[in-house]
Specification:
Structural class: alpha+beta
Distance between the termini: 36 Å
Number of strands: 5
Oligomer: single chain
Strand content: 15-25%
Order of helices and strands: HEEHEEE
Radius of gyration: 19 Å
Amino acid sequence: FYHLAGAHPPYTLDEYGYSTGVTTQQTEQAKGSIRIVCDYLDQMKKLGIYKNATIIITADHGYDDKPSDGYLGEPNTPIFFFKAAGVDESMPYRVDNTPISQADIFATILSIIGSDVQIPVDKTLTESNVIFDIPEDSDRIRNFYNVRNYDGNSFYSLLEYNVQYDANDFNNWKYSGTEYLNNGEYY
C-alpha cells in the first residue's frame, strides 16, 4: 500500500513527478503523481512481478469545484483502476460501469487474499460488495460525503449524497438532506 499526495496542495511537483521547490499548478502535480505511479508499474514489469500482482489505484475523492455553500454542482468521481493478478500489459484495458464504491475495496481485497475475516455486506446488495460480484446493471445506491465547511485543518460538516446508476451523470446524484457535524451529531 502506497499513499501519494496526488493533486493536493501544496503544489510543488512538475509534470514528471519531480519536486520543483517552487509553487506549481494542480494539473501539473496531478500529471506528476500519475507519472510516479507509471514509473512504479514499469519497475514492477522489469522485476517480473507485475503480472502476478493485484493492483488497485484510486483516489480519496474526485475533482471538487463546489460553490461556496458546499453543495455539489457536478459529479465528484474518483479514479478507480483495477488489475487482477494474472493479467499482464499485453491485455487491453476496458471501461466498466459497474456501480462500485470505495467502501467495496476492503471486501474485495479480503476476497482476493482468501481471508477468513467476515466480509462486510452492503445493505443494498443481496450477497456481497466484492466488486466482481456486483452486476454492471445493479441499481444499488452508493453514498458520497462532501465536505461543506473546512477551515484548512479540519472539517465541520459533511453533506450526504446518494448516487444511483452512473455516477458521471449528476442527475443520478441526490442530496439526502443529512448533514453530519464534526462532533458526531447530524441533522
